[in-house]
Design a protein that fits this description.
This protein is about 70% helix and about 5% strand. It is mostly helical. The chain has a two-stranded antiparallel ribbon with strand order 1-2. A two-stranded antiparallel sheet has the order 3-4. Helix 5 crosses helix 6 (about 160-185) and helix 12 runs antiparallel to helix 13 (about 290-320). The radius of gyration is 25 Å and the shape is globular.
Length: about 325
């Protein structure tokens, strides 16, 4: 007698299906390779012209200079990035103060409190909010938000200011935070929720003490994506904030500690890195000029800032990631 009976082939390793599986795998690999090559090409493009810029303009002056006034052909121009960094970070910080708490609380409501009918209505409305053109947000900030703030809280606010632009950038990024955070919360197993209820916890306790900590890696990822979107925003800030690179005055606390007052940044016109790039590109540039190469230096600086944010976000997400 023969040994063990023949076992059924459960792998389905037929020739056609095996070939189809290899074809799908190759297609996915090509798509991944295209994404990687695109990123590498962008970095190399930025580096090639940024190196030319830094060969003609000192890196130290670029990173520490407080004047940004590029000339069309680089003659007598200043390329200090500090005022642009201050404007970019100010807009991003205020946008984060708006988008992160509102978006997270919205995600908690949709995931844990909202009924099926309410979720079916509110979720598409949030997606519509994410699809509004950014120039519409900019004009809304200029026409409605700034006059309202001037009439109530800040009478001395300039017509073009960073605060109104930052508030609208924060509102624009709320759907990104809420949607990704809600998906992360929905991925938390119901067994964890039932265990909390079994121990006598309330819905609030389960939401804040079980679901949010378990989904923290996905929530942090949504924060990083929202902040990266805020850093790269252009149309809202160019319409509502203006395009004037302005270094705020540096004050002294007790005569020894220098600081910048938030009102000197948020209530006045300013310029972000992306707006500076648009302004320079809109001038009469010639290839190989210092102003032209400055575009790539700014793009490289923006890439580094975004990369640092993503690396920090990935480290936090890996530190608190839960595996189920």
């Amino acid at each position: 007698m023969s040994g063990a009976p023949d076992e059924p082939d459960l792998d389905r390793t037929g020739g056609v299906k095996r070939l189809r599986g290899h074809a799908y795998g190759g297609l996915f690999a090509v798509c991944a390779l295209v994404s990687v090559l695109t990123t590498v090409a962008i970095v190399l493009t930025l580096l090639s012209d940024a190196v030319s810029f830094f060969a003609a303009y000192p890196v130290a002056e670029f990173l520490t200079g407080t004047e940004w006034s590029p000339g069309n052909f680089g003659g007598g121009a200043d390329f200090g990035i500090v005022p642009l960094l201050i404007g970019t970070l100010a807009v991003t910080a205020v946008a984060a103060l708006v988008a992160i708490p509102v978006g997270t609380l919205t995600a908690v409501y949709l995931s844990e409190y909202a009924s099926t009918r309410a979720r079916a209505i509110l979720k598409p409305l949030l997606e519509v909010l994410a699809g509004v053109p950014t120039v519409v947000y900019g004009y809304f900030a200029l026409v409605y938000v700034t006059p309202a703030l001037k009439a109530t809280l800040f009478p001395s606010m300039a017509t073009f200011n960073a605060l109104s632009a930052a508030l609208m950038v924060g509102i624009m990024t709320i759907p990104m935070v809420s949607s990704i955070s809600e998906d992360a919360m929905n991925a938390v197993p119901d067994e964890l929720r039932q265990a909390g209820y079994g121990l006598g916890a309330t819905k609030y306790d389960v939401s804040t003490g079980v679901v949010v900590p378990a989904a923290i890696s996905g929530i942090v990822s949504s924060y990083v994506l929202a902040l990266s979107r805020a850093v790269g925003e252009t149309m809202i800030v160019v319409v509502a904030m203006g395009a004037q690179a302005k270094m705020p005055p540096v004050r002294d606390a007790l005569g020894v500690v220098p600081y910048v007052h938030p009102g000197d940044v948020l209530l006045e016109p300013g310029q972000t890195i992306t707006v500076a790039m648009v302004q320079v590109a809109g001038g009469d540039l010639t290839g190989g000029s210092l102003a032209y190469d400055a575009l790539f230096a700014l793009g490289l600086a923006l890439f580094v800032v975004t990369l640092m944010m993503n690396v920090i976000g990935d480290l936090v997400a890996q530190r608190y990631r839960e595996v189920y």
